[in-house]
Amino acid sequence: MLLPYSCAARLRSGRLLLALLLAPAAPALAQTGFAPGTPYPCGSNLPAKVVLGDVNGDGLADIVAGNQSGAAISVLLNQPAAAGTFGTPLRCPTGGGQPRGIALGDVNGDGRPDIVTANAAGGNVSVLLSLAPQSATFAPPTSYGSGGTQPTTVALGDVNGDGRPDIVTGDFVTGRVGVLLNQAGLPGTFGAVATFDGGVSRLTGVALGDVNGDGRPDIVTGSFGGGGIGVLLSTAPQAAQFSAPTTYVASGPADVVLHDVNGDGRLDILAADSYTDAVLVLLNQASLPGAFGAATSYSSGGRYPGYLAVRDVSGDGRADIVVGNEGAAPDPGSVGVLLGLPGQPGTFGAVVTYSSGDLGPFSIALGDVNGDGRPDAVTSNYRSTTVSVLLNSFPTAAATAAATVVDIYPNPAQAQFTVRLPAGFGPAQAELLNSLGQVVRQQALPAQVAVPTTGLPAGVYTLRLRPATGPALTRRVVLH
Question: 375: number of CA atoms within 13 Å, CB side?
Fold first, then answer.
């Protein structure tokens, strides 16, 4: 899905007639779950990867979109007066053409999110440091060799255990993974790239996570029709060394995501397979952590799924999958949602589809953009010049009623806040989520407990309470 546009179009044209002849009836567009998508101009043709993050420090999640044309990315700021709506895009040059891959993270330790891009036409990765968060201003890009010729994906993570996020990128042409270490003497600058066999060709997806439980982040790769999914285990964290890849067969897993979908404490692999129009789930094996079982395939609900994201979007405490189906004219594409099944951890129900409100929803990001405590969906619409926002509309009346008797004080909070559970609610697991939906604190709750927040940046957070039985409750928490 991340091929040069002309090449991708030629590949798809050969499949289109067969797809139309063999296609089952498309799932009906849903009326509840996500509101119809609202598109916003993003200022670029062929918008690619989309991510969410608070780039201007106002506590609201903003949109950052990559680009398969030109040499700039787009930043759309969330509007405080109407949270969940977005302003005119700001353009940021990237120092390389076709910045398809994009990641957000504080790479220089100043508390502000910076932007890292993989520039497919430049053969490099670029770092844009945040200068003035209130205005979402970034320094001119600093570019580094990626170790390949066409990097299409990028991720941030501390691969050598020094507490600083490093850059990991994947190259479409060579199928190799490039690792650039954050420099101790000058945080936010990166050393020469080291490359590793990614285990696949036509590499388009990279994910970082500790898949074998040794405390070190491993690398998982995906490919657009290039041999499947590769797993590279960390072998020497201080030197950022990785094992030869173990490859799992799949047709065309363009994007890969790591998430514990069955609740066993181990990260599983999920992939959007654009060749079979499927979502693949590979469960981490209890008998051999870091090894994965055969893929279970689920319909994505549309044609050419590109990216996926995993979160509990329905509020029932189970992981759900949201996938972007780009489609091909005249099909406008769709957003597919697969809800986790009750009593069957790691399995998912039939897909339900939603409209993004524009053509070719491709990349997907999940996060609470309007401050109601529920993860919303944002898509990049590859066959238009827009991104779309689909607000979460899953029913929450019961949870909201119960949540009104959950006491949180003080709120706004500083060093800590206290949670008092309602009578009869019972012990619960408390999770504090940032605006990206990432869990930044978690602990078991008795009837009343203080939750420390020291070290967390100011902003709006979501407190999620998971009881032993019944639905999870969410409350908004503001940190000063």
Answer: 27
Longest dimension (CA), the chain: 62
Q: What is the DSSP letter of 300?
A: -
Query: H or E segment at 433?
Result: strand 428-433
CA–CA gap between residue 368 and residue 17 (Å, rounded): 39
* Angstrom distance (rounded) from CA 421 to CA 435: 23
- Per-residue pLDDT 10s for the chain (480 aa) are 444 333 343 333 333 322 322 333 444 445 469 999 999 999 888 899 999 999 998 889 999 999 988 899 999 999 999 999 999 999 999 999 999 999 999 999 998 999 999 999 999 999 999 998 778 899 999 999 999 999 999 999 999 999 899 999 999 999 999 999 999 999 999 999 999 999 999 999 999 999 999 989 999 999 987 679 999 999 987 889 999 999 998 788 889 999 999 988 899 999 999 999 999 999 999 999 999 999 999 999 999 999 999 999 998 888 999 999 999 989 999 999 999 999 899 999 999 999 999 999 999 999 999 988 889 999 999 999 999 999 999 876 344 444 445 677 777 777 787 877 766 666 777 888 765 556 788 887 765 677 888 878 776 777 877 776 666 666 777 776
**Side-chain half-sphere exposure of 32, counting CA atoms within 13 A:** 4
**CB 91, CB 74: distance < 8 Å:** yes
pTM of the predicted model, to two decimals?
A: 0.81
> What DSSP designation does 208 have?
E
Phi and psi torsions of 389, nearest 5° = -115, 120
Task: Fill in the amino acid letter for 306.
Answer: G
